[in-house]
Amino acid sequence: IRAQTCGTSWKTMFEISNIRLLFMHFTGMMLPMSSEIIEGAVDAIDALSTLPIDDLDAAHSTAALTALKQTSSKLAATIARLTHHVDVTGAIVGTGSRDAADWLARQTGTSTRRNRTAADLGAAMARSDEFSDAVVHGAISSEQATAIAAAAADATIDDALADAAGAWTAA
Q: How many CB atoms sit inside 10 A of residue 30's CB?
């Protein structure tokens, strides 16, 4: 009901809860500072779900929409990095899941395919600091980064991703 009243889709609410689930499940593997950051982010997202959207004027509505979409992209990049990290560390070994994408889909009711796409983006980000920085800091969106990573799958990652990232940011 909260998701419907604030204009947020259930799909988005599931995606937001994915990060909560991952960090709650793997908190023992995280540094205390990291879990405090995650808890703060989750609390902030929960608070946003009660935002009185109807009270926003046009200027504030468009500014809020832009800021939240950019933040959503950065959150998607963080989820991608974490999904890849869970795969690399073998954190889901023994769960009966074939990989982090499958495990996450089972835990959250989300798409295994979309979770694998996120893991692929996380892998590409792990191979190139320049590319990762561009996505994490919002120079390119996570959607653009996913397309770049897919196009550069077999290429030298630093060269291909840097060239593609330059093309995206120049446009």
A: 14
Cβ-count burial 37-67 (b if 16+ within 10 Å, e if not): ebeebbeebeeeeeeeeeeeeeeeeeeeeee
Residue appearing with tokens 């990049």: 77
Do the Cβ atoms of 119 and 87 come closer than 8 Å?
Answer: yes
Give the pLDDT of the chain (171 residues) as one tens digit per residue.
Answer: 333 334 444 445 455 455 555 555 554 444 445 777 888 888 888 888 888 888 889 988 999 899 889 989 999 999 999 999 999 999 989 999 999 999 999 999 999 999 999 999 999 999 989 999 999 999 999 999 999 988 886 665 566 656 665 665 555
Distance CA 117, CA 90 (A): 18
